[in-house]
């Protein structure tokens, strides 16, 4: 505790919560705490409360994942979507995989994910791609492309490979029903063939390695486990943030 006081930790924590640009190398705020803020919290970045933006995306994830999970959203051949492949690298892969590994044997989470599967694809090695898609029926599969800029070389190579896998068996129109994006670059999302309506945003004040509570983790994990489980996960993270503060 003396060391924490000597290092001025308390003021540094407050600076983070105040939206100060404490990420000095990129001159950015560091507000991953906002990605799991309660609706009534106020967390500002450059003078603007970002919590409403966060909840707009979370509400969109909840609505979308419920449609997919209850069979309202169907694949191009009319089959329900039960398999998800999340394509991302670095923080867009490790955090979500970590949480998935923890939840997959948790009894309540297991019951909510019955009959569903979630796989991750990060590596550009063709063997990895083959493993990720092995045994999956494209008619029942959704691919989530996670890339803030939609330009990350490895992720976009894998995205094109998955698109080719889907369209080879289901035709070009499959992309709209079987591919969604977590990105801020709606122009490139659209050019890729994904409906920008099916893109879920996040912000440059979320560092990649801290992004699991943003759409990066919440979209694939909510598709797998449902909002009940993942809402609880956000509440837990928020409680830890309060404790830390």
From TrEMBL:
GO MF terms held by the record: carbohydrate derivative binding; glucose-6-phosphate isomerase activity; monosaccharide binding
SUPFAM superfamilies membership: SIS domain (SSF53697)
CDD domains listed in its UniProt record: SIS_PGI_1
Alphabetized InterPro entries for the sequence: G6P_Isomerase, Phosphoglucose_isomerase_CS, SIS_dom_sf, SIS_PGI_1
Pathways involved: Carbohydrate degradation; glycolysis; D-glyceraldehyde 3-phosphate and glycerone phosphate from D-glucose: step 2/4
GO biological process: gluconeogenesis; glucose 6-phosphate metabolic process; glycolytic process
EC number: 5.3.1.9
Keywords noted in UniProt: Cytoplasm, Gluconeogenesis, Glycolysis, Isomerase
Swiss-Prot/TrEMBL catalytic activity: alpha-D-glucose 6-phosphate = beta-D-fructose 6-phosphate
Transmembrane segments annotated in the record for this chain: none
Signal sequence region: none
Entry similarity comment: Belongs to the GPI family.
UniProt entry tagged with the keyword rRNA-binding: no
Listed name of the protein: Glucose-6-phosphate isomerase
One GO term describing the cellular component: cytosol
